[in-house]
Amino acid sequence: MAAERYVLLGLGTARSPWFTEVARWATVGSIPADFVKCISAEELRVRLGSGRPFSALLVDAATDAVDRDLLDAAARQQVAVLVVDSPGGRGWVELGAAAVLPPDLRREQLLDALAEHSRMIGAATDLPLDPTEAPSGPAPAATGTLVAVTGGGGQGASTVAMAVAQGLADREGGDVVLADLCLDADMAMLHDARDVVPGLQELVDAHRRARPGPDEVRSLTFDVVNRGYHLLLGLRRHRDWAVLKPRTFEAALDGLRSTFGTVVADVDPDVEGEAQCGSVEVEERNVMARTVTTRADAVVVVGSPGVKGLHGLVRTVNALREHGVAPERMLAVVDRSARTAKGRAELTRTFADLSGARMDGVGVVGPVHVPERRGLDEVLRDGARLPASVTDPLVGALAGLLERATTPVAADAAPVPVTPGSLGSWAEEEVAG
Length: 433
Hints:
The chain has about 425 residues and is of the alpha/beta class. It has two domains: about 5-130, Rossmann fold, CATH 3.40.50; about 145-405, P-loop containing nucleotide triphosphate hydrolases (Rossmann fold, 3-Layer(aba) Sandwich). About 40% of the residues lie in helices and about 20% in strands. It has an eight-stranded mixed β-sheet, sandwiched between helices. Helix 10 (about 245-260) crosses helix 13 and helix 14 packs across helix 15. The longest helix is centred in the C-terminal third of the chain and has 19 residues, at about 390-405. The radius of gyration is 27 Å and the shape is elongated. It comes from Iamia majanohamensis. This is CobQ/CobB/MinD/ParA nucleotide binding domain-containing protein. InterPro entries: P-loop_NTPase (IPR027417).
C-alpha cells in the first residue's frame, strides 16, 4: 500500500549525528518513515507500552539504555531493535537486538536493515499481535538443578538452606552455590563475611548487557571451604531491589545454573504479584522469589513446631500453590521439631489436616523433621560444618524429589485404534458365556 510506512522510535545522545540525520530523512521524505524522538529511556519505555504500533527502535549504545529488559520489552511488542554502536562493541545481537548499525549511518544501510528486520505499518488500527501469539524463541539449554528454600521470618529457613547446600555439596562433589536472594539478606552475617562485594548486584549488572562466562560468574562468589559450597552474597540494603529488573535477573539466574551443577536459593515467602494486588511495583519487588519458585526443581518450605510455626508453614504452602508451584515439587520441613515419635506424628497429622496435603491425590512431600541441635549458634559463629543430624534428613528427602523432577516425561503418543476383542473380556462375561 502507498500509505504504508515505517514508524520508528529513536533514542540517542545530543551529539549523535545519526539521530539528526534520521529525523531529517523522515521529514523530507527520503525514507518512508515517521520518526518519533525520545529524550529519555523512561519516555522510550512508556511509548513502547502505549499500544501504538512501531516498526523498529533505533537506540544509541552510548545512552546506556540498552539492556536485556529493554530488548525484552521491545520483543513483546514485536518491535525490532537496531542498536547504533561502534565496530567491536558488545554482542547486541546475542542479547536479542535485530542488528547493529554504525554511528556514521547511511540512508541505504538503514533502509536495508528496516527491510530485513521490520515491517511497514498501514492504518493506525494495525496493532501488533498479542505477545502471547508471538513465536517462541529457542528452547533454553540444559542447566543445573535449582532448589529454592523459603519460610517465614525466624523459622530457620536460612539455616536449612545452608544445610541443604552442604549436604548436596557432599553428595555431588562441591559444585554447589548457595545464593542469598532475600530482600533482607543475612547470609553475609551468618557466614561472617568480611566483604559485602561482589554479590548479587554485581552478578545482575554483569548480565545486564552481556553474557559472562562461567569463570566470571564463579569469580563473583566466595568459597565456603569448611562446608564445600560457594556463596553468592545478597543485596546490601533492602531498597536495592529497585535495581533488579525481571529479564536481567532471569539471565543472572540462568548464568548461575549454567555455571554450577546445583543452585540453592534462599528466598522470601512473599510471591504476590500484580494479579493479586494490582501493583506492578510489588511484583517487581518480589521478582526474586517469584522467579526462583516458578523455575525451581524443588521448593523447600520451612516452618517450626507450635501454633504459629505450623500456621506460617501452611500459609506459605498455600501461597506457593496459588503462585503455580506444583505440590509434588514442594518439600515441607519442620525445623527444631519434637524429639519423640509421638510428637512428630502429631505435627505431621496436623500439617496434613490444615494444608489438605493430598488434594486431588497429589500431596506436598513431608514434612521432614529436623531435630533441634544445641550449640548451633556456636557452629555458625565459628564457620564449622553443620551436623549430620541436620543435613542428612534434608538431603535424603530431597534426593527422591529431585530425581522425580529431573526425570523426563515421555511425550504423549498419537491415538492408536483398538481392535475389538484385543483387550480381553470381563470375568463375569466369560462365566456367563
